[in-house]
Each structure stands twice: as C-alpha cells, then as structure tokens.
C-alpha cells in the first residue's frame, strides 16, 4: 500500500486537525490530556446543537409562517372540543429567528476553532488568560448575551413583522400570518393612493421633526441663557436660584405633566381665571379661538401644539441649565479677561469664546436631545391622552391625531388597534430617522478634525 507524499501527508493531517477542532470541539483537548476542558467544550457544542435542533421545525416553517390554522375538534375520548395541533405564526417567527442566530453562532465558532494553529491550552491557562489579559472579554460576555437575547432577536422579529399581515384581522394564535412583501411600506408612503395611512404619515412625521427641533433648541437656548444669567458676577443668591430650578426638575415628570394637563383643561383653573378676567371673550371676538367659553389649550391642534412646546420648557430648561452651568464654570477665566482687556464687548466674548466652547462640549448632548425628543413619549401622551380628540376623519382612520409623534402613533396602533404590522413599519422609520440625524450630526461635528483642532 503506497504512502502519501510527505508534503501531502502534512497537508492532510493539518486539514484533519482543523476539521476535528471545528466539528468536535472537545476532541483536541482530550487528546492532549485536558479532560475537563474537553468535556466542557463537548457540553457547550451539545447545548448549541440542541438549541438548533429544537428551533429547526420553526426554521423550516419560516417561509410560510405555518399552514395549520387553529380550530376546535371533537375528541371522542374526552367527549369535548379540544384545540388541534395548530401552527402559531408568531412563535414560528420568533423561534425561526432564534434558530438562524444559533446557526450563525455555531458556524462562527466552528470557523474560529478551525483557524487555531497552536496546541489546545489547559483549563487553568484559559482561566488565567480570561482573568488576566482578556478580562474585558469575560466581563462583556454576560452583557453581550443579554443584549442579543433581549434586544437583537426581538428587534429582528419586530422588523420582520413589518413584512407580514399581523393586524386585528390576523391575530395569533387564532389566525395564521403570511408574508406580504413591501405592501405595508407602500400603504404608508404611497401619497397618491389617498389611503388613511398615506394621509396621516407626512403630517405626523412633519410634526415630529418640528417638535424635535423646536423643543431641543428652545430648551438648549433657554437653559444656556438661564445658566449665564445666574452665573453672572452681579447675580446674588446664586445657590437659591439654582435650587429653585432644580426643585422643579426633581419633581417626577408624570406628576408635573398631569398637573399641567389639569391646569390647562377646558374646565381647568387657568380657563376659569381667564374667563373671569374677560380674556376668553376678548380672544373669541378677535377670532383667536374657535368657540366661546374656554380657550382650547389642549383640545385644538394649533393651541395644543403651542402649549406642548411651552410646557416642555418647564420640563427641559432646568436640566439644560445644569449642563450649561457645569460647562460655563470650566471656561478658563483668563480667556474672557484677556478678551475684555483687548476691547471685546460682552457680545463678542459670547460669540467668540463662550458659544464655541459650549457647542464643542455640549454638541453630543444636543444631538442626543434631538433623538430623545423624537421619541419623547411622556410629554405628548400625558398631556393629550383622553383630552385631545381629532376631528379629522382620515387621521382617525389611521389611528393618529394631529399632536401625535411617530412614537405615540406607534403606541396607539399597538394598544388600541392591534395593528402590529403598521406599528412595526413606523418603528423602522423612527429608527431610520434617528440614525440619519445622529450620523449626520456626529459626522459634521468631527469633520476635518475640528474636535482635535479646538483642543
């Protein structure tokens, strides 16, 4: 029997070792006498393969999302109607995505183990490495696993729901879901169709962006000016003024907003006082309010949007004041003193020194504030829920109101109408808008090395 050429034999042995490490995780360790590590690797591989096997039926049904609908059938043994062995489309989607994630993980680990060229280390050596130079990997293992299980897989399922017909007429497990391609996206963005969602979407999106820009800039400017006013040398009782605004910020937001909602309700104390002073009748005579008797602070589209922006100042300015105060106290006083000696006025010092320093330090905070306001559920929902009722029939047909943000519209669709497919589409668009704003803003902040140059 002829032997292989030494070079070919070496290549074959190398390939065999690579295949053995890839497919039999603990074999190499056992061959080198590391029994405990080998058994642990075998157990990890067995657990991963078991997970793949358990999710494999759902993975095979993923293209159809199930074919057996739920129905009650007569069981002659128990003499009662029982549910058949039906397909649950949502569980098929969830476990199918989980199966794909497990297969990807298994392939990546197999490839990584196959690339290893050194003899396997002992369990003690691995423990010393993971508690020493690679300790960061040990600490990140649990958080990364949690993020994948709690965020990545549910997020993938949510995205896939946007391509199904999951709504009130197709609720699981009673009904089966099916894939409908991009129909939901077309229903939301096809303005020429005249549909309710196509009518509501640009209006809600426009108000969302208007709200985000106006609320962020107004709180930023107001908080910065307030911090500068309090930090002036001539201002007395600075700790007292800071404490007053901090006390307003310390009150839970839902308490402040619900209080404001009651104060500015149609039969609230503010309307009662203004009517007694004759302000309400005067506004009605000049055409500023549509109906006599009360000012529709939170029940008319224009008034409600203005009041929401105004009340948000009460919530947002104290926080921005604290941020700006910390930045202003760290501006080197030598810069401002030198500028004044050179003849610069207060406005020039602000434009040339204070404002660039503020923007440089608080730029990322300004961007995060913009994204936060796009998803600012509390202010809109707590101020307008059960008070604002839209009179626009097409907006109502889409489950939206004139004061809704994309995130509150999404909530209404899921909680009130069980329209999960359109809520998923809106969630994807919210993510796209936030990502575009964040990436664009951070790119401009760091473009041409401006950040390093400022330092």
Helix-strand blueprint:
Blueprint: H1 6-23, H2 27-31, H3 35-61, E1 72-75, E2 80-83, H4 89-115, H5 123-130, H6 135-161, H7 183-189, H8 196-230, H9 238-250, H10 253-263, H11 269-276, H12 279-285, H13 301-328, H14 333-341, H15 346-374, H16 377-384, H17 393-397, H18 406-415, H19 420-446, H20 450-454
Antiparallel strand pairs: 1-2
Helix pairs in contact: 1-4, 3-4, 4-6, 6-19, 7-8, 8-13, 8-15, 9-13, 10-16, 13-15, 15-19, 18-19
Note the main sheet. 2 strands, antiparallel
Q: Considering DSSP H and I runs of 4 or more, what fraction of the residues is helical?
A: 55-70%
SSE arrangement, N to C: HHHEEHHHHHHHHHHHHHHHHH
Termini distance? 75 Å
Shape descriptor reads flat
Structural class assignment: mainly alpha
CATH homologous superfamily caption of the largest domain: MetI-like
- The CATH topology of the largest domain, please? MetI-like fold
* CATH hierarchy, class of the largest domain: Mainly Alpha
Explain how this protein is built.
The protein is built from 20 helices and two strands. The protein has a two-stranded antiparallel sheet with strand order 1-2. Mean pLDDT is 83; it is low at 450-455. By secondary structure, the protein is an all-alpha fold. It folds into two domains: 6-67 and 85-155, no CATH class; 187-454, MetI-like fold, CATH 1.10.3720.10.
């Amino acid at each position: 029997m002829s032997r292989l050429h030494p070079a070919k034999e070496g290549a074959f042995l190398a390939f065999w070792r690579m295949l053995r490490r890839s497919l039999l995780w603990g074999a190499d360790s056992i061959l080198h006498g590391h029994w405990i590590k080998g058994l642990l690797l075998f157990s990890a591989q067995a657990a991963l393969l078991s997970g793949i096997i358990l999710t494999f039926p759902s993975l095979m049904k993923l293209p159809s999302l199930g074919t057996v609908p739920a129905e009650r059938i007569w069981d002659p043994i128990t003499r009662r109607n029982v549910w058949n062995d039906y397909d649950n489309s949502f569980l098929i989607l969830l476990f199918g995505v989980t199966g794909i994630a497990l297969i990807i993980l298994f392939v990546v680990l197999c490839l990584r183990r196959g690339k290893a060229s050194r003899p396997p280390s002992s369990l003690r050596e691995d423990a010393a490495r993971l508690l020493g130079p690679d300790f960061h990997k040990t600490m990140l293992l649990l958080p990364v696993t949690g993020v994948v299980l709690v965020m990545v897989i549910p997020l993938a399922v949510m995205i896939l729901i946007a391509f199904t017909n999951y709504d009130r007429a197709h609720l699981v497990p009673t009904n089966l879901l099916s894939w409908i391609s991009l129909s939901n996206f077309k229903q939301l963005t096809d303005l020429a169709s005249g549909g309710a969602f196509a009518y509501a979407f640009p209006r809600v999106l426009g108000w969302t962006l208007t709200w985000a820009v106006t609320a962020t800039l107004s709180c930023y400017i107001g908080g910065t000016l307030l911090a500068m006013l309090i930090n002036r040398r001539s201002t007395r009782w600075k700790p007292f003024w800071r404490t007053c605004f901090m006390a307003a910020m310390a009150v839970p937001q839902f308490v402040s907003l619900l209080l404001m909602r009651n104060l500015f309700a149609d039969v609230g104390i503010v309307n009662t006082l203004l009517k007694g002073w004759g302000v309400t009748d005067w506004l009605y005579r000049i055409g500023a309010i549509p109906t006599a008797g009360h000012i529709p602070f939170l029940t008319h589209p224009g008034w409600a949007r203005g009041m929401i922006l105004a009340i948000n100042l009460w919530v947002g300015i104290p926080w921005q004041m604290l941020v700006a105060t910390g930045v202003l106290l760290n501006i080197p006083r030598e810069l401002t003193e030198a500028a004044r000696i050179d003849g610069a006025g207060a406005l020039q010092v602000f434009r040339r020194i204070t404002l660039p320093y503020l923007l440089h330090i608080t730029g990322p905070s300004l961007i995060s504030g913009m994204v936060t306001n796009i998803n600012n559920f509390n202010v809109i929902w707590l101020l307008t829920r059960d008070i604002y009722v839209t009179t626009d029939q097409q907006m109502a047909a889409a489950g939206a109101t004139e004061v809704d943000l994309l995130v509150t519209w999404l909530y209404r669709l899921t909680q009130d109408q069980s329209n999960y497919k359109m809520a998923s589409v809106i969630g994807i668009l919210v993510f796209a808008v936030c990502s575009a704003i964040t990436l664009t803003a951070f790119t401009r902040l760091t473009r041409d090395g401006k950040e390093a140059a400022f330092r």
